[in-house]
Amino acid sequence: MSIHEQEKPKSGSTPYAPEGVAATSDEAEAEAATSRHRRSRQVELPRFRGRITPPLDRAIIKIVPPVLIVALIVAVTLDPAGAAGVIGELRTFVTSGFTWLFVLYSVIALAVCCWLSFSSVGKVRLGGPKAKPEHSSFAWYSMLFACGQGIGLIFWSVAEPIMLRDESPVVPANGNPAEGGIVWTYFHWGLTAWAMYCVVAVCLAYSHHNLGKTLTFREATVDILPKRIQRGSGVIVELLAIIATVLGLATSFGFAALQFTSGVSSFTGVPPSIGLWIGVIVALGGLTAVSAFLGVNKGMKRVSEANSILSIVLVVAVFVFGPTIFIISNISQTFGSFFYNFIPMSFWTDAPTSSTPLGSWQDSWNGWWTVFIWCWVIAFSPFVAGFIARISRGRTIREFVIGVTVIPSLIVMIWVGVLGSAAIFYDDASERSISADVAADTSSGLFSMLTMVPFVGGALLVIATILVATYYVTSLDSGTYALAEFVSAPKKSGPWFRVVLVVSIASVALILLTIGGTAVVDTVQTGTIIGAFPFSFVILLMIANLIRRLKNRDKDVKRLEREVNDPHHREEDDPADGDDFPVAHRRDA
Fold first, then answer.
1. How far are the Cα atoms of 90, 203, 505 from residue 527, in angstroms, in the given order?
2. Burial label, 368 (beta-carbon count in 10 A; 0-12, 13-18, 19+)
3. pLDDT for the residue 268
4. Alpha helices, DSSP H, located in 531-568
5. In the structure, what pLDDT confidence band is assigned to residue 264 with cuts at 50, 70 and 90?
6. pLDDT digits (tens, 9 = 90+) for 76-86
7. What is the C-alpha to C-alpha distance for residues 222 and 237, in angstroms, rounded to an integer?
């Protein structure tokens, strides 16, 4: 007999009256009022239809990641050179033997996105046929762009075009020596990178919003595996996702602090120092904690919309007050070159370097760039894709894919086209002073360029510095939401729990910077990116599972989607066990 059956009241009695004792009129009226309250109460959708994580597995997921992260930090800080050597060898191993894998993975991600967009499955709505988008298009684009690439573009929109202006394979010079660097920047931060985020996000979104699973990698992946290994595989998958998220956010926090410090120094003259780093981390952590506590609608949404407005101001000001004619001409030429060379760049593995094992990853152009950046995208996929999935309820899969790939890619290309072209122009005009600044400190490229914009350069330095802070706040905020889901699912995380996660990540970043400095931060980040190698296999499994689910979407599955997203209150929605989960549907799915 189920718990619900045990609690069901007998006819003519209340749930709390002994059997056979008639209910009083007051009790009957109270019961009727309770029933009316239940019917009118808003139901939190989607209803849970996933697996209840066993207590042992939940303990492993909560305890093992912090232990491993502390052990890694201790090892790196005690022996930075030794740790850097080991991680360097692993990076060489991955680059030497598996460049083809990352190239193939990126092409598969793009192909799956095309299939989702143009096939009949594109009409499937996340959250069921009657679901409505929870956020306006502007807010949605702002949030997904801010969590996905805002801070990366601030860092690389000038640095990569400058660093690759004299070394860009595949893309011919065409009389414009600086063309290749901008075209490769379009490629690394545009359509393919967003397709890699999108394909992971849509797997999580369909699993959660339509099938009622928790918003976790294990629930989106393991049911394609044999039954006997699903439980253990789910724990491993979740551990990889949690560790990648924590280390990725912490090291990015460290680099954001360094870049913010560079921005402050560019217009105040205050030299970078450990004290300034600590102040920056505490300030950014505090802002993120407030945003995480307020929630998506009041916190993340408002900061993301402010990011978008400031970004538009920055790009428009550089376009208007900078070398406008050169920017227009260079954007036109580089856009054409990008589309012409897109397929060769997508498949380029630098095959001659694979004829013999690499002595070092530094001997491979891909090791410096494409493999490095694709690993970065894969390593950041857990929290970026998790957050994008969370905020995308109510959109069709076709709308979702186009919104997560095409629109952000156009924004990236315009952003890089304007800022990168201006940087090339001012670099040539100043006898490559920007190149010298980037060689000395990669994070200084954008600020070095903005100082040369006439009339508004000083104001733009302030705006760019603010953007470094706010873009990282949104990245950490979105990562905190995803991490809270991974750790606490299927329970819902509260605002204070998210604040604790923010403080923990900020503390890791603070330790890395103050004890080991930039070398340790760089070593840990490289180690995190190397972790993308095993995680890529998890994502490929998840993609295969999504295709299987959509191909097998029959009447029973469609009925399940309607039940999971029925807004009317049901008896099963009432908590009926010690963990606060509805008992009626505690079954493996």
1. 9, 26, 17
2. middle
3. 80
4. 532-551, 555-564
5. confident
6. 888 888 888 88
7. 9
Task: Give the C-alpha separation, 76 to 576, whole Å.
Answer: 47
| 184 Cβ neighbours under 8 A, 6+ residues apart | 160, 164, 168, 171, 345, 369
- What is the spatial distance between Cα 220 and Cα 213, in angstroms, rounded to a whole number? 8
Q: Which two tokens stand for residue 373?
A: 């950046």
- Are 396 and 123 within 8 A, CB to CB? yes
- DSSP three-state, residue 565: coil
Whole-angstrom Cα distance, residue 412 to residue 273?
32
Per DSSP, the three-state class of 403 is: helix
Looking at residue 264, its amino acid is V
Residue 237 near residue 220, CB atoms below 8 Å: no
d(CA 263, CA 434): 15
- What pLDDT score was predicted for residue 313? 96
Q: Between the CA of residue 268 and those of 149, 395, 423, 460, what are the distances in Å?
A: 27, 45, 22, 13
Contacts of 279 (CB under 8 A, 6+ apart): none
Mean pLDDT to the nearest integer, 469-490: 84
Domains in the chain: boundaries:
1-41, 42-347+374-564
pLDDT tens-digit series, residues 188-239: 999 999 999 999 999 999 999 999 999 999 999 999 999 999 999 999 999 9
What whole-number distance in Å separates Cα of residue 417 and Cα of residue 409? 12
42-347+374-564: what CATH class? mainly alpha
- The pTM for the full model equals 0.87
Q: How far is CA 73 from the centre of its chain?
A: 23
Q: Which amino acid is at 410?
A: L
Contact 267, 461 (CB under 8 A): yes
Place of tokens 């790009």: 315
Calpha distance 408→190 (Å, rounded): 7
* Bridge partners (DSSP) listed for residue 396: 125
The C-alpha atoms of residue 201 and residue 195 are separated, in whole angstroms, by: 10
502 and 476 Cβ atoms separated by less than 8 Å = yes
Q: What is the mean pLDDT of the chain?
A: 85
Total length of the chain: 589
Environment class of 546 (CB within 10 Å of its CB; exposed 0-12, middle 13-18, buried 19+): buried
What pairs with residue 125 in β-bridges? 396
What distance lies between CA 204 and its chain's CA centroid? 12
Sign of CA dihedral 142, 143, 147, 148: negative
Q: Residue 44: phi, psi to the nearest 5?
A: -80, 120
Highest-pLDDT range among 172-181, 420-429, 437-446, 501-510: 420-429
Whose tokens are 């604040």? That residue is 499
Which DSSP string do the residues of 35-53 spell out, in sequence order? HHHHHHSPPPSSPP-SPPP
Distance CA 30, CA 581 (A): 25
Would the pLDDT of 21 be above 50? no
Spatial contact of 366 and 92, defined as CB atoms under 8 Å apart: no
Residue 396 vs residue 38, higher pLDDT: 396
Cis peptide before 46 (omega within 30 of 0): yes
* pLDDT band at residue 586 under the 50/70/90 scheme: very low
pLDDT of residue 489: 76
